[in-house]
Amino acid sequence: MKHIGLWGPSSSGKTVWLAQLYLRLHHLKTEWKVFPATSETQRFIELMRSLIVDQRRFPDGTLEGSGVKIEYEFAHPGHPDKLHVFTEDRAGVLSERLGDAELQAFGEAHGLMVLLDLERPNYASEVRRTLERFFLHARDSKQDRDMRPVVFCLSKADRRISDHSDFEFAHREPEEFVRRQLEPELLEFVNQYCGRHTYFPVSAVGVQIDFGLVRPAVYYDERLSLRLLNEGVPVHLLTPFEWLFEELR
């Protein structure tokens, strides 16, 4: 069993991404199957199905003291190992205040996924501090860089796709799409810490494509609450996981 840790601050899109990954996987042309690994994760899926599919609502922000541990198992007929993906959905300021047990789990993971939310004012410093703590707890401290595979995912990528050429670029050259959005200092920092890494833009809600036109897959209702359209085409819903899985073969 290979273990993959996923980190992302509150409101970075992690919850909706993990929910849509399970709820919409059957729409993708893939042999991968994903299963909830715990009863807590099953309850999370049932809640997300009610909110996202039935009510077309986004989940509320995670409140302090109400964190949810989400754990999936991935299986593929051509892959020798099952893969275990874990994260903890924590409230805002607590997303960085990881305890010893969480740091140990991320340090011992075989691979990592890190969400980048450019809408957060201090996202770059958040990522730097988090990576430093993860890598201090990595198992092989003799390396100058962490040699585990790491995927950096630019979340809410639908907000950075304005036309069909952007949509195609995000799928054709995902790493370059993300690199153009990031500060050079952060890219250099990642290179210093990570020996095996890549970048993907991701969006669980995606965009609508109508006759070559790209339209938002979200809207505001009469109460000015943000709602989602289930007709949206997600952006790299599964491919970041597939990259990690191939690196871990």
List keywords for this structure.
single chain, 249 residues, alpha/beta, Rossmann fold, 3-stranded antiparallel sheet, 8 helices, 33% helix
What separation lies between the terminal Cα atoms? 11 Å
CATH architecture: 3-Layer(aba) Sandwich
| Full CATH superfamily name | P-loop containing nucleotide triphosphate hydrolases
Oligomer: single chain
Domain module tally = 1
Mean pLDDT across all amino acids: 86
The CATH first-level class comes to Alpha Beta
Kindly provide the radius of gyration, computed on alpha-carbon positions and rounded to a whole number of angstroms.
Answer: 17 Å
Q: Spans of 5+ residues with little confidence (pLDDT < 50)?
A: none
- Spatial sequence of strands, sheet with the most strands: 2-3-4-1-5-6-7
Question: How is this structure best described in words?
Answer:
This protein has 249 residues and is an alpha/beta fold. The chain has a single domain (2-204, 236-247), classed as Rossmann fold. It is built from eight helices and twelve strands. Helix 1 (14-23) packs across helix 2 (39-54). The longest helix is centred in the first third of the chain and has 16 residues, at 39-54. It is globular. It starts with a strand and ends with a helix. The mean pLDDT is 86.
Topology:
Layout: E1 2-7, H1 14-23, E2 33-36, H2 39-54, E3 68-75, E4 83-89, H3 100-108, E5 111-116, H4 123-136, E6 146-154, H5 164-172, H6 174-179, H7 184-193, E7 194-201, E8 203-210, E9 213-216, E10 218-220, E11 226-228, E12 233-235, H8 239-247
Parallel strand pairs: 1-4, 1-5, 5-6, 6-7
Antiparallel strand pairs: 2-3, 3-4, 8-9, 8-12, 10-11
